[in-house]
Design goal:
Number of strands: 7
Helix content: 25-40%
Structural class: alpha/beta
Radius of gyration: 18 Å
Number of domains: 1
Largest sheet: 7 strands, mixed
Order of helices and strands: HHHEHEHEEHEHHEHE
Bound molecules: S-adenosylmethionine
Strand order of the largest sheet: 3-2-1-4-5-7-6
CATH superfamily: Vaccinia Virus protein VP39
Distance between the termini: 33 Å
Shape: globular
Strand content: 15-25%
Length: 255
């Protein structure tokens, strides 16, 4: 229904506007920027893995959907991509523009406030315009309209273009119960929905050659170095039967 949709958009906008209003815009370290330009441990870290996959893509024009405060967009621009970032939150877009500016990368980035569920930001009279469409923690905010959005994503990709996403995966009911016993800090919007089989089917019907890499079985309490958990996960995920315990997935396909 139109009204509840508008309320949902308003609640997403408000939540992320609030987050962005507290952000202090600072230059990222050279170490961080170089980490994604030349990912040292893609087998351990999801975002490094995304940047590694990106290297196989052809073309330089990237659309990032749900770019938030622009950290990834700026990292992509640092790697030489021409990036368009869209997001429903105007304050996040303001932060993203400042972030690009302090990195001297404004000429390589365009940031637009747009609601992708209303087809804003994907310019349809000029289809096939992006070589890469990058979705990082956004599709699970769009599950109500995922089928329509996936069709639009495919349209906006050039032939041979890369669709790449990183998204949380819904745990089995019993695992959710176990995890809820642990005091982990959560920061959720009310309408987000980690991807279930249904959403994976929608994505796969748009990109039949979709590859799904399951990641992150163990949650990361701050008591041991993240590296430790990433290394254990890497070994656990070698067993196919344990993949249903994964918390995230990296998804990618070429058109
Ligand atoms: C979890 S954040 C992810 C931000 C960034 N991609 C990252 O990984 O840090 C989800 C982002 O999606 C944006 N978003 C939610 N619904 C949207 C919509 N309908 N259209 C465009 N952006 C949306 C939010 O404003 C927020 O910035």
């Amino acid at each position: 229904m139109v009204r509840s949709e508008e309320l949902r958009y308003e609640s997403e906008r408000e939540f992320f506007d609030h987050v962005a209003s507290r952000t202090v815009v600072e230059r990222m370290s050279d170490k961080t920027l170089n980490r994604y330009a030349n990912p040292p441990n893609p087998e351990l870290y999801d975002k490094e893995r995304m940047f590694e996959i990106l290297k196989s893509s052809k073309g330089r024009k990237v659309l990032e959907i749900g770019c938030g405060e622009g950290f990834t967009a700026v990292q992509l621009a640092f790697c030489g991509y021409q990036v368009t970032g869209i997001d429903i939150s105007p304050r996040s877009i303001e932060v993203a523009k400042k972030l690009a500016s302090i990195h001297g990368l404004s000429d390589y980035t365009t940031f637009v406030t747009a609601n992708v569920e209303k087809s804003e930001g994907l310019v349809f009279d000029n289809v096939k315009q992006f070589d890469v469409i990058w979705c990082e923690n956004i599709l699970h905010h769009l599950t109500d309209k995922l089928a329509d959005i996936m069709v639009l994503i495919r349209c906006a990709l050039s032939d041979g273009g890369l669709f790449i996403a990183h998204e949380p995966v819904e745990y089995a009911a019993w695992l959710k119960k176990v995890r809820s016993l642990f005091p982990i800090k959560k920061s959720y919007t009310p309408d987000q929905q980690p991807l279930r089989k249904h959403e994976f089917n929608i994505i796969r019907s748009t990109f039949p050659n979709l590859e799904v890499e399951y990641r992150n079985i163990l949650f990361r309490p701050n008591v041991l170095p993240v590296d430790f958990f990433a290394r254990v996960d890497k070994h656990l995920l070698k067993f196919k039967c344990l993949r249903q315990l994964a918390g995230y997935a990296v998804l990618h396909a070429t058109k």
